[in-house]
Amino acid sequence: MSNGDLVKFLGTAGARFVVAKQLRSSAGVYIRMKDKNIILDPGPGTLVRCAKSKPAIDVTKLDAIILTHAHIDHSNDINILIDAMTGGGLKRRGTLLAPEDCIHGENAVVLPYLRDYAQDIVILRHNQKYSIDTVSFSTSGRHQHQVETYGVIFDHYGRKISFMVDTKYFTDLIQDYEDSDILVMNVVRFAPHDSGQVMHLCIDDVREILSRITPRKAILTHFGMTMLKAKPWVLANELSDESGIEVIAASDGLTLELGV
Description:
This protein has 9 helices and 14 strands. It is of the alpha/beta class.
């Protein structure tokens, strides 16, 4: 049964070249849950994508913005969205939830003059529970990434809707995301980088994760150039056949109705 709750992938780009050339949109994820409007990781173009979405997403009615980390492809539009959400600061409302690194660290991405616009700023820490009024979520442990990064696991009527954002694969991910019903994974690379220093998931990592977590549905997104060349929709079909799990390669604008 549909209740209007949904996840909409405004963009599916990851890594510098796909973002710079806009081969895929680099906008964030829109989440409509329990009558709350949330943007997760507003990368470059999120404001425009919201306006052009069908139906349009009214950013002046956002209830919250969540940043998982400070990298520009996840945070570029954070300031304009705070401004829009609060009517240019005329109406103090909405909540910003982000790691300390995004607010006060040397990688701080929120402009100081905007920090008093939101009704509340909540600092995200590892393995903690949070709420946006009726919407509950928890953070994962800290991901292995270049900056302070946490995944987000929503509790949707007892089901786990999980976003495993940018990270290198490590075994603690399995415990952090176990029992996920829907698992969204940022898969930037087709294969590991030769340097071994690129801290992103690749397809073999996804195979390992699916074999150990076995969600009801998995969605791949945040693709870099090697993933686009490998045709993520083909890879998703192969993973579905191998694992018996429904695996979907997200496309820009993909909408997933959550139901109840």
